Amino acid sequence: MVVAAGCGREPARPVLPNEPVGPEFPGEGEGEGEGEGEGEGEGEGEGEGEGEGEGEGEGEGEGESSEGDLGTVPPTSCGRVIDPAALLAERGGYGRGASGGDPARVYVVDTVSGGSTGSGNRGSLRRALESSERWWIVFDVDGEIRLDPERVEVLGNKTIDGRGADVAIDGSLRFTDQRNVIVTDVQLKNDRHIEACGQNGDAVVIMGTGGSSPADYSSQDFWFHHVDFHHGGDGLLDLRGATNVTISWSHFHDHSKGMLMWKDKDGGRSDGMRVTMHHNFVDRLTVRGPRFHYGLLHSFNNFVFEWYDHGVSCMDEAECFFEGNVWQARDRCSLLSVALDQCIDPAPCGDSDGGTASTALVTDDGDSRGFTRSVGDSLQNGAVLDIHQPERVTFVPGYPYAVETATTALSERIRANAGPRTTMCR
What we know:
By secondary structure, the protein is mainly beta. About 5% of the residues lie in helices and about 30% in strands. The chain has one domain (about 55-415): Pectate Lyase C-like (3 Solenoid), CATH 2.160.20.10. It has helices at about 85-90, 125-130, 335-340, 410-415, and strands at about 1-5, 50, 80, 105-110, 120, 120-125, 135-140, 145-155, 160, 165-175, 180-185, 185-190, 205, 220-225, 230, 235-240, 245-250, 250-255, 260, 275-280, 280-285, 290-295, 295-300, 305, 310-315, 320-325, 325-330, 360, 370-375, 380, 385, 400. The longest helix has 10 residues, at about 410-415.
């Protein structure tokens, strides 16, 4: 354990209310419900599924270090604990191979400057992201970091670890032909393009070359965990040629088009794309929670809440496997309210011209249809799933996981705990 020891002691890593203590995927650590912290927590629920499916990766990445071992991180002002082992124990899904930066090479962000400043292993966030060093990035500041210029070309082999801090990164993080990245416990947004309602300024976009196999991809092994995605430009999180990606315990809100997972950067099909989504709160988006094409999507124990047009789309012969999700439609608008333009989409740049829809999952949204299978999903307030040729969804996820029963208690726990853990170690 590396300790930021500004308070002169080593604070215990707290356990959040109703959050599992140990690995979020039983079988990867000491077992269900056991973990690094103190106290007690719930296990991940009932049932396990295992298989030998595709999409496995080592996630070690490549990178050269130009400095010696930096040892323990210099003291910071609040005494936050940096415990890489506890974080890595929470990995799972197709992105479980991501190891991020080197825990022995800790970089401390000590300014909210959006430019490139600092020296050694302290300074601005931009400086760390653009570096070829295998940084494990932590924060000794709270507040908004408004990137200037707004786009950062982020290099691989990085961990952005905001546990215990309260940090919003405002700008566009772009990963092109990169591997092995972990982003946890921060807000990601890009509010510069909201009023324009155009196709610029994704909060996060991962681009690379793709193909029919995960091995073909130049961008792979990404894990987004306890992230708050909101107020982006065109999209919040777009994959344009990426594979072996896990998105977990994250909150998507205040946006129209959430996530596009589509063709690679050269316009080719992305049949080798592999994505796991679990325990996310997809909160009142208009559409794209996500819009998924070509590859394999495993979505379990997510709370998809009150979309305006539809919740998720599965297109272009993708195989989409849904397990134990809670889908809750919003109240339908009356014909009179639609006629009087009173059925308003609350999302920025939302679509208020057609009234709300009960369709949680679609397969025929302008492209060729995908294949969808649902097991144990809960449909609330009239939500409807478009289940299309479920026998064509033949993959078995090649990793251990446990599916909780889709209940109101699960959806409320996700609502309470998705997004950054800003009170950790305070």
